[in-house]
Each structure stands twice: as structure tokens, then as C-alpha cells.
Design brief:
about 60% helix
């Protein structure tokens, strides 16, 4: 077994092509099954809505969810490109995202390999990429996960940001000896920062960790190279302020807690919260322990490393090997992220996922060392068997989730106008802008910059309240200039005194454009 693996690893191009091929097959199967569209609150619906809004050509685009001119922090270069492609080709935005995901998956593998190869060599680069894609624990379903069985994440801005992160780091390292890479570093830094602000900020931190690690290893300060690295975050931020599709600076302003979806807003909040076990299950100790485990550091915390990272946790051994060799960049990367997880810093769940990258590379180092040494065949078979079990278990758990079915929203397109504002429950509202281009009162969760979000959420809750009078409902509809109400009987059934425009077994579309007549005659 060891000899077979060693022979395979001799040709890095061949094995890299195999990894790309297998990964793309898995991703295509996810697309054929339409796995990304299952469920209530997937971020895909926000990104689809962004593409539709960008395609209208307004700069900056209006809000993708609500009828307002408040922009969205997702209007980065990646979605802007997709938005204009949609405007020109009229290809379904879902298909555009799927194609973008396939392309980005290939680029992710390529640039991850190039980056790791540049600092650790081909063999470890191959094993590390294999670890990144295939060696995970059985649990972990969250935006920012880059395992192959959640490969649909690669069409998210976060997935594109990972690729840009590796490409930018590769260029930074190459720039030490080849100054031509400096311009590529600046361009990639700005694109990364404006595509996904959180990953962009983390990347700027990594630049300073790279300076520390390089100075420690070389025992000297390279004025031209290190001063460039020190100044790059400032250059990146200043150039990013010129991005016309959303105001980058506004994303760092502190907002009110109830409408807080900007970086500044979330940074102003206390992320810790008490654990409340549902009363009806509180006497079931097994359920209670499981509930606490899942929610203690929601969604990820230090106790989740074994079940999310799996065998990649042993990557700390490979990172320790780098420390002994005075190569500190990857260990510093992991230590910084781990500290952010331990102290429950804002976005700690994202830093949890950022910390897995050096862990996977460390595990690649460990595997490289294992297959270089003389081992008995039995031990080699056991190791490969455990890795195969990890791969299969991760896939089985990922696709065993019970997810809500995909619904056809064409009835909304056929029975409403393009500029319609629609009132519906928050779960249904989350999909309407994405699948129809119509605007709603409020989405499933935050959408870009705050736009009286708490007030809008309260309006929906009031509208669906059992004690709310029809007159109060009329006032809410008039306030937000609502043209239609879409009732999803499977989520929040409600009968209203308006004319029915469309009805099936699940949905009712009420026409409320003549709401003023209703109020005047006291019929509501």
C-alpha cells in the first residue's frame, strides 16, 4: 500500500487531475440532486436575489430583499460579474451559481496546491489538498465549510474568498523573490477584501503573521519586502473604499442590535448566550447533553473540533513539526484562530473554520511523514482504511439530513407584477426575491446593511398574530406598499378578506392593491 501511494505521488499533475475530476463529479451529483436548494434558510437564496438585483444595472444596486435603496455587503466583484452575465444571457441564476461553483472548485484545488507547494513541497501539497477535501468528521454543515460533501459552498462568496485567499498568499510569497508578483498581490487583495469582507479582514491579519514568521525564520528585516507587506493592508483598504457597488466603510459602522448584520454591528454584540434546554426534553439526559453539545458554542466551538475536523485534528502534530523547524506561519495561523474560538470572539464560528486550513495542511505533513517511513503493510492498510471510513462517514451524514422539499414559485411570477412588494411569512419571503425577483417585507435573516430590520420583522409577526385585527393588517400593508399577500398554509395558514388571485393546495395569493378602498369601507 505504501509503495502504491508513493508511486502515485511521484506524478503530482496526474494526482491533481484525479482530485479535480473526483471533486467535480461529487459536486455535479449535488447539483443534479439540487441539494443546495433544499431547506428553509440557505444563503443561496440571498445570493440569487443579489444576482437578480445587480442585473438591473443600477450602481449601487438597491436592496435585493426589500423595496429600498439600501445596498448589500454581498455586492462584491464575484456576484457583480454573475449579475451582469445574467443581465446579458438571461441564464437562470441558479445555473450560473452552479457553473461558478464548478469553476471555483477547480481553482480552489489549483491555488491551494500552488500555495502549499510553494512553502512545503509537492508531496505535502497533494496530501494536504486531499485532506482539505476528503478528511473531515461526520458533522459540520455551515457556510465556509470546504469539504467535498458540502462542495456547493464553493459557489458562495465565502468559497470564492478561500480561492482568492490561497491565490493572494501564493503571490505574496512569490513576491519576495519576484517583484512582478507585487501587482498581482494588490489586485487579488482588493478583490478578496471586497468579495467577502470577513475573509478579507482575516487575510490582512495573515499578512502580519507572515511578516512575523518570515522575520523569525530569516532573523532579519527585509526592508523592501517586509515594508510592502506591512503597507499592503492599508493599500487594500484604501483602494476598496472606491468600490462603487456598496460602501465598504459603512460595513464597519456599529448598528443597533436588532438590525445588526454589518461587521460593526455584530462586533458590538455579546455573542454568548445561556443554554436553555426545552422543558419537554429536560428530563431526558441524553437529549439534554446532545442539545448542550450542539448549542454551547453555536454553531462551532472548541468542543466541536473532533466531530467537524475528524482525523485532521492530528494535524497539530504536523504544525508542531513546523515550529521545530522555525517555520511559524501556519502554526501562528492556527494559534490565532484557535484563540478567537476559545474567547468566543465575534464570528468565532468563522475563525473555527479558518483554523481548519492549517490543521489540514498539518495533517498532510503527518501523512507525508508516515508514507515516507518504513511501515508494515498491515499498519498502512489500517491508516488508509480509517481515512476511507472518514470519507464515507462524512458523506453519509451530510446527505442524511431531513430537508424541506423545493417548491415551485412560478405561480408568483405568473400572478404578480415585476415591481410587486409581497407580504409573506419569513421563510417563504426568503425565497421569493431569489426565485421571482419580487421584493418582500423582510427575509429569513439579515440582508446586507440594516434597513429598519427589527421593525420589519415585528411587522410580519404582528401581521400573522392571532390577535391582530384586519384593520391593523391593512395598516401594515399600506405602510410597506404591499401589492400581494402570499400565504403558505404549510408554515403559517391565515385567511384574509381580500380577493384571491391564485390558490393551490399549499399557497394562496391575495390581491391587496385596492387596500385603500378596503380601509375606507371598514371591510377589513
Amino acid at each position: 500500500m505504501r509503495e502504491v501511494i508513493n508511486n502515485l505521488l511521484k506524478d503530482d499533475r496526474r494526482i491533481l487531475h484525479v482530485i479535480i475530476f473526483v471533486s467535480c463529479v461529487v459536486l455535479l451529483l449535488e447539483y443534479i440532486y439540487n441539494y443546495p436548494l433544499f431547506g428553509f434558510g440557505g444563503d443561496i437564496f440571498q445570493h440569487l436575489a443579489c444576482i437578480r438585483e445587480i442585473s438591473k444595472g443600477t450602481i449601487p444596486p438597491h436592496n435585493p430583499i426589500t423595496a429600498s435603496n439600501v445596498p448589500d455587503v454581498h455586492y462584491g466583484p464575484y456576484l457583480v460579474v454573475l449579475g451582469y452575465i445574467f443581465a446579458i444571457t438571461k441564464v437562470d441564476p441558479i445555473i450560473l451559481l452552479y457553473i461558478a461553483g464548478l469553476i471555483n472548485l477547480c481553482l480552489f484545488i489549483f491555488f491551494a496546491f500552488k500555495f502549499i507547494n510553494e512553502i512545503l513541497g509537492e508531496r505535502i501539497a497533494i496530501l494536504s489538498v486531499i485532506s482539505m477535501l476528503f478528511i473531515w468528521g461526520p458533522w459540520g454543515d455551515f457556510a465556509g465549510v470546504y469539504k467535498i460533501f458540502a462542495a456547493y459552498d464553493f459557489f458562495y462568496p465565502q468559497g470564492v474568498a478561500y480561492t482568492l485567499l490561497f491565490a493572494a498568499l501564493f503571490c505574496l510569497i512569490k513576491a519576495k523573490k519576484d517583484k512582478r508578483f507585487i501587482i498581482f498581490s494588490i489586485i487579488l487583495s482588493v478583490i478578496l477584501f471586497t468579495t467577502h469582507l470577513l475573509t478579507g479582514i482575516f487575510y490582512l491579519i495573515l499578512i502580519y503573521l507572515l511578516v512575523i514568521a518570515d522575520c523569525y525564520k530569516t532573523k532579519k528585516f527585509d526592508k523592501s519586502y517586509h515594508l510592502f507587506l506591512i503597507g499592503l493592508p492599508i493599500i487594500t483598504f484604501l483602494i476598496s473604499l472606491l468600490w462603487p457597488f456598496y460602501p465598504v466603510l459603512d460595513a464597519f459602522l456599529v448598528r443597533t442590535p436588532h438590525a445588526s448584520v454589518t461587521l460593526g454591528g455584530i462586533l458590538s454584540l455579546n455573542t454568548s448566550s445561556p443554554i436553555i434546554v426545552p422543558e419537554k426534553h429536560s428530563e431526558n439526559i441524553i437529549y439534554s447533553l446532545a442539545y448542550i453539545f450542539i448549542n454551547k458554542y453555536r454553531p462551532f466551538g472548541i468542543i466541536h473540533y473532533p466531530v467537524v475536523a475528524g482525523f485532521a485534528c492530528f494535524g497539530v502534530i504536523g504544525l508542531w513539526k513546523l515550529i521545530k523547524e522555525n517555520r511559524l506561519f501556519l502554526p501562528l495561523w492556527f494559534i490565532f484562530c484557535f484563540i478567537m474560538v476559545v474567547i468566543l470572539a465575534p464570528f468565532s464560528e468563522r475563525f473555527f473554520l479558518f483554523s481548519l486550513i492549517p490543521l489540514h495542511i498539518g495533517f498532510g505533513i503527518l501523512l507525508g511523514k508516515f508514507f515516507r517511513t518504513e511501515k508494515k503493510k498491515l499498519v498502512s492498510y489500517i491508516v488508509v482504511g480509517l481515512l476511507a471510513i472518514s470519507f464515507l462517514t462524512t458523506g453519509f451524514v451530510e446527505y442524511s439530513y431531513s430537508l424541506s422539499p423545493i417548491e415551485d414559485y412560478n405561480f408568483i411570477i405568473n400572478n404578480t407584477e415585476k415591481d410587486s412588494v409581497i407580504m409573506s411569512d419569513r421563510h417563504t419571503s426568503w425565497k421569493i426575491p431569489a426565485l421571482t425577483g419580487r421584493k418582500v417585507i423582510c427575509g429569513h435573516h439579515g440582508s446586507g446593511f440594516p434597513n429598519n430590520g427589527s421593525e420589519r420583522s415585528k411587522a410580519i409577526n404582528t401581521f400573522y398574530g392571532h390577535n391582530t385585527s384586519n384593520k391593523e393588517r391593512c395598516e401594515i400593508l399600506k405602510k410597506y406598499n404591499v401589492s400581494y399577500v402570499v400565504i403558505n398554509n404549510k408554515i403559517k395558514p391565515l385567511k384574509l378578506p381580500y380577493s384571491i388571485k391564485y390558490q393551490n393546495d399549499q399557497f394562496i395569493v391575495y390581491d391587496c392593491k385596492n387596500i385603500s378602498v378596503c380601509t375606507k369601507n371598514n371591510n377589513c
